[in-house]
Structures are given as structure tokens and as C-alpha cells.
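Reading a protein record of the kind used here takes only a little practice. An example makes this concrete, so a full record is given next.
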Amino acid sequence: MAAPTPGMNRFYLLLGAVALAGIGWLVYQVGKPNAVSIPVNVTVLAADTAGFRGYLLGADSAPVEISVFADYQCPGCQSFETIQFPAVRQQLIETGLVRWRYRDFPLDGHPHARLAAHAAACASDQGRFWQMHDVIYMRQAEWSFVRNATGKFSDYAKEAGLDVGRYDECMTSTKFAGRIQASVMEGSKLGVNGTPTFLIGGRLHNDILSSDSIKALVQAQLPKPAP
């Protein structure tokens, strides 16, 4: 029997490489999460908002409450959350002066904004909202421009310490679509038309506030000491 020629060896090696690549692609496709789409303009049910008024951070006894209406895909929101908010958290929230209230306000021009908001809501279902919230904002440049961001958010769920199986089921169910829509309706009723928008002392501020500006606004809301 004739020995295989060098050319035939190369052919079989190439054929094997193509087969392995094909198997790898199939494994990737099977393991990749299916794209999830969060419904818009859904009917908000009482159960969607029962006992929920936003994602809260800080003491119940804080003398000042700040609500922020934000969009995870908004570059200005990302700038605030990653640069200014750490100082706000340290100087005002952790010191007991401010109760922070995060509200979703996904803009129509941002195709993945509701998906990101729902991913954070599913993290909240496991008590890990702020961890997921932080990861989504920090990684905004990674997921904003991909066609299907579902897999990215699933990766972030693992990074944030979630049970990914439970998280994926939550995302597929889209069970928090009504909660997100209720938040949008609340903001619209107040006059919010862009992000980030801050509600401080009954007044809307629709620009990116610095931590020093927020501190000054908070101090103006604090009770004046008795003479």
C-alpha cells in the first residue's frame, strides 16, 4: 500500500481544522443566549409597581431625597455614574444626608436601553441591582454598538455575581417591562425629556451635575440651624 503523499497529509489536516472550527461554531451558537426584546408602551399593571418606587440607596431617615432619571445607553449618564456618582455616594449618601432614587428613563433613540434596564431589574430580583448597574455603565462602550447585546448582559450578570440561569429566565420572561414603562411615565409626567435629569427639592435639573453642584443643592435643602 502506497504511503500518503505530503499533499494528501496537508489536505487531511486542513479538513480536520475546518471540521473543528465548524464544531466550535455550533457550540457557540447553541450556548449563545437568544436575543431578547423588551416590549415598549406596555400596559402597566398594579403588580408592576406594588411596593416599588425605584432603586433606592441610602438611609430612610435621610433629610433629602434625590431622584435621577437615567438611560444606561446615554453617554452623559455614563459620565455621571462613573465620574461624579462615586463622590456623591461617599459624601452624601453614606453620610446619611441623601436617599438616592434611581429611575429608568430609556430613550427611544437608544435601541439597547430598555434591555439594559431590564437586565438591571433582573439583577435586583437577586439583590444585586447596584452591582449590575455599575458593570453596565462601566462597560457601556462594549455593548452599545453591538447588534445583539443579550449575551453581553448575560456575561455581566455572571461578573456581578448572579445566578446566570435564573437571570436568563428572568430576561426571557420580560417580566419587568411594565416596571420600566411605569418609570418612563412617571418621568414624562414630571417633565423629564432627556437624561440624566435630577429631581432635587421639587425642581428638575436636566444637565449633568457635578458632585459639588449636587452637594450645594443638598445643603440648600437641609433644615437651617436654630439661631
About this structure: The domain at 64-221 is CATH 3.40.30.10 (Glutaredoxin). The chain is about 55% helix and 10% strand. The longest strand covers residues 64-70. The CA atoms of residues 141 and 196 lie 18 Å apart.
